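C-ALPHA CELLS:
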Amino acid sequence: LDSLHSEIMDDDNFEPRARKIRSYLKRLVRDIPSNFQQRIPYELLSELAASLAQGQILEIVKMLTEVQQATEKHLFQNRLQFLQKQRNEKQSFLYSGPSSVEKKRFETTQKEQLKQYDMRLVTQIDQKVSDQQVTLERAGVPGFY
C-alpha cells in the first residue's frame, strides 16, 4: 500500500494516477478465484480507481489498515494470555490429584471456554470490519453504499 501510494502520488495529473490504480486493481482481481472475479465489474474498478486517485481515500485506507493491524495484534496477545491462564489453571488442577472423570470434565470446560473466547474475538473482528465498511461508505468509496 505504501509503495502504491508513493508511486501514484508522484504523478500530479489525475488521469495517469487513475490509470495506474486501475491497472493495479486489475492485477489484484486476476489473483482471486474466477467466481469472485465475475462479481467485480470493470465499472466498479474504474470508479474505485478514480476515487483512490484523489488521494484522500488512499489515506483513509492506509489509516484503516494500520488500525486493523494494531487491533489484530492486540487480540492475538490477549488470546495468548488467555491460553497461558488456562495452562496455569490446568497445572494447579492436576497438582490437586483429580480423578479421571474430573480431568475429563475440566478439559471439556477449558475447551468450551476457549471456544467462547474465540467466538468473542471473531465478533470483535467482525465489528471492526463493519466499522471499516461504514467509514469507507461515508467517504464515498464505490462499492460501499
DSSP finds six helices and no strands in the chain.
